[in-house]
Amino acid sequence: MRLTRIIFYLFAATLCLTTLSSCGGDDASGETFQPQKVSPEIEKFFEAHLPISGNSDCFFKSEKMEADSAVVRIINSMAELQQLCYVPVELPQIDFSKHTLVIGWKEVPNIGYQIATQKLLVSSSSAKLYIETKPLGPRYPAFSRLFFWGFYPKTDIKKINVKVKRNDIGL
To answer: Which residues make Cβ contacts (< 8 Å) with residue 81, sequence separation at least 6?
Structure first.
């Protein structure tokens, strides 16, 4: 009787874990996109205005966010990009007929990070931006902003969830 009960509980636990793991995972039926190459002028602009550490001089001035979340903007036109800037700045010419800009920031603890890799997974029901970082070395502020940006093939997605994997190896 006791052996039967143990087998029943193990079977029930396995069934529950299998069901939960299939519900919470990534949508494997989606497409994965790497950031597209852009002109040196565009790259230089975003690297100058979205620094590796510190604050941006024209984007995301005083936005507050909940803990463990990210501020993300999906930009599909020059007008939307101009709206995002809180100070007048000369923007590079960007062809938004073929590209979508994903731009944002996330607060990260204690050390400076830079983006090592990023990819956008788009499915019929959701979109996720996966970012992997590498450390810059010890930093002293309690938290710093990790800015990210990338151009992807044109899409009509309205919301993106961001997952950041911090690699703190060697610190």
So the answer is: 75, 91, 94, 101
Tokens of 118: 């990023």
The model carries a pTM of 0.68
**Residue with the two structure tokens 């450390």:** 135
Position 2 scores a pLDDT of 66
User: Amino acid identity of 111?
Assistant: I
The partner residues of 113 in beta bridges, in order of sequence, read: 135
Give the integer Cα–Cα distance in Å for 120 and 83: 24
Q: Maximum CA pair distance of the chain?
A: 77
Would you state the pLDDT for residue 21?
39
- Are residues 144 and 117 in contact, defined by beta-carbon separation less than 8 angstroms? no
Mark the ranges of the chain whose per-residue pLDDT is less than 50. Answer: 8-9, 15-27, 169-171
CB 100 within 8 A of CB 154: yes
How far is C-alpha 162 from the geometric centre of its chain's CA atoms? 4
Q: Are residues 118 and 150 in contact, defined by beta-carbon separation less than 8 angstroms?
A: yes
CA dihedral 93, 150, 143, 86 (to 10 degrees): 30
